[in-house]
Amino acid sequence: MSRLSVRKTYKLYIGGAFPRSESGRSYPVTSAKGEFLANASLASRKDARDAVVAARKAFAGWSGATPYNRGQILYRVAEMLEGRRAQFADELGGGKRAALERVDAAIDRLVWYAGWSDKVAAVLGAANPVAGPYLNLSTPEPGGVIAIVAPADPLLGLVSVVAPAIVTGNTCVVVASESAPLPAITFSEVLATSDLPGGVVNVLTGRQAELAPWLAAHMDVNGLDLTGVADADLTLTCEQAAAENLKRVTRPVDEDWTADPGVGRMARFLETKTVWHPIGV
User: Fold this and answer.
1) Are 16 and 192 in contact (CB under 8 A)?
2) Among 33-37, 231-235, 271-275, which is the least confidently predicted range?
């Protein structure tokens, strides 16, 4: 007997839950050949505000967790992604072998960042020489809530901008790839089952031009990653809005997501705290 497949409903991911957009809107997602794949939620400004609230609520607990614990959770995300390789390969499309290679690269990238969790402070921190009976120590601390416009690469690119932000203790609101948002929501399902506290990562699907300026202007957002913005005018608008509360801004650049990422992205949204402590003479 023939049967109808149960089609997946793609929603947003906010605060550890999967709500529909409060506006009730959606938009069609098509394959590279123009074939209809699914309807994705079209997030609104209200959804963006809700996501920022969820990220701020989660910040204290996540930034206060030990680096080792954050690394364990990222490794668990990699484990769960490994178990769903075939599903992600289907959503990425293209040749099966090439899609699986891209999924494997995303898994490896998560493991790589997980390993950095308890080492990045030693690399980016310092004991500073001073002319006096003091210890002067500089240590990196998470910057806060980071708004991220994800790149067009819907999985490896997404992982490559989200993982360095959260492994260092930040929380984030992510605007998924506008043209290929489906892997981002499926990745959210992986996050929801990987011990990651709700609100640490929040994923919105929809229009960059609608969401990015409001996140850039939001006074409770501490950093802005515009990696996925292709429109120069939109980039300028977001940078101007971000200046209102002196957000750290990462400008769009063409990146090879398969290359060694280094520590640059982990350092980008960290603040350095310097402590002076007297010593005996």
Assistant:
1) yes
2) 33-37
Q: Could you read off the pLDDT of 189-221 as tens digits, one per residue?
A: 999 999 999 999 999 999 999 999 999 999 999
Q: Quote the tokens at residue 159.
A: 């992982």
Residue 247, both tokens: 């957000």
DSSP structure class, residue 10: B
Render pLDDT for 94-111 as a digit per residue (tens, 0 to 9). 888 999 999 999 999 999
E-assigned strands of the chain?
26-30, 36-41, 126-128, 134-142, 145-149, 171-175, 201-204, 223-225, 248-250, 270-278
Residue 255: Cβ within 10 Å count: 15
- In whole angstroms, give the CA distance from residue 88 to residue 104: 10
Locate the domains of the chain by residue range: 26-278
Fold exhibited by the domain 26-278: Aldehyde Dehydrogenase; Chain A, domain 1 (3.40.605)
Rounded CA gap, 108 and 102, in Å? 10
* Its pTM surpasses 0.90: yes
Burial of 20: CB neighbours in 10 Å, binned 0-12, 13-18, 19+: middle
DSSP code at position 69: H
Q: Provide the 10 A C-beta neighbour count for residue 7.
A: 8
